[in-house]
Amino acid sequence: MTNGFPQFISMLRPVVIVTALTPLFAACSSPLTPTDLTSIAERQSTASSSSDAPLASNRRTVASYPLENGVFTITFRTADGTSGTISGTYTGQAVVGMSGNTAASLDFHISQTTGAGSLITGLDGGGSGAFGEAGDFTLALRVASSSKVLDGSKVMFRGTTQLSCSAAGRIIATLRATASTARFAEITTELHHEIGNAGCSA
After folding, report:
1. Per-domain boundaries in the chain
2. In this predicted structure, what is the pLDDT of residue 61?
């Protein structure tokens, strides 16, 4: 049953949700109306302190959820034909706003590089869209590099997300996207993470 859950959960087609995303929705037994959502956001704003504020304003936040056990791979080819890969892990947080839009912040940790990927020393990213549901998303990455040419480069990925249910009953999001820039002629990325505070059954 998905009654009373945030929009991104109600849209899950391949799985059946068996746990609530946040305590705010645990007691809901009927679909939320706009009035209900406003009331929840206001109560959350009153109860929250500045030290645990979410990514968006509390009064505009419907729910937030962690992105757990993330792994990623980026494959790229530079304008001069040099290729390489970057892979590693990430964690993150996604926030669903009153409008239904989702914003996400990601903390990347590079564990392996090949080829020209060895020039990349760090990644900083954030995005919007389908990080917890099936659909389209965007991911913006800022590159730190030992190469002055690449350091500070910004890459905007656009792609789609698919959902599946793991044997352990966790919702798995698989994100695939592509991008191109003046410095990177062709880039593809694939990310996998679990959606925290939620479960599923096949």
Report:
1. 1-202
2. 64
∠ Cα 88 174 170 (to 5°): 95
CA distances 8 to 17, 50, 65, 120, Å, are 11, 26, 11, 34
Question: Residue 5: helix, strand or coil by DSSP?
Answer: coil
CA distances, 197 to each of 17, 27, 35, 128, 201 (Å):
10, 15, 25, 20, 14
153 vs 171: CA distance, rounded Å:
33
31 C-beta neighbours (distance < 10 Å), count: 11
pLDDT tier at 5 (50, 70, 90 boundaries)? very low
Alpha carbon separation from 71 to 16, 86, 93, 121, 193 (Å, rounded) = 24, 11, 15, 17, 7
pLDDT band at 149 (very low <50, low <70, confident <90, very high): confident
Average pLDDT, the chain: 76
The residue whose two tokens read 């990177």 is 184
Examine the pLDDT at 92 and tell me if it is beyond 90: yes
Let me know: does 25 contact 63? Beta carbons within 8 Å: yes
pLDDT at 147: 86
Query: Which residues make beta-bridge pairs with 108?
Result: 90
Residue type, 94: A
The answer to whether 41 touches 60, Cβ cutoff 8 Å, is yes
User: What pTM was estimated for this model as a whole?
Assistant: 0.69
Radius of gyration of the chain from its Cα atoms, rounded to whole angstroms:
18
Question: Which phi and psi angles does 33 have, rounded to 5°?
Answer: -100, 165
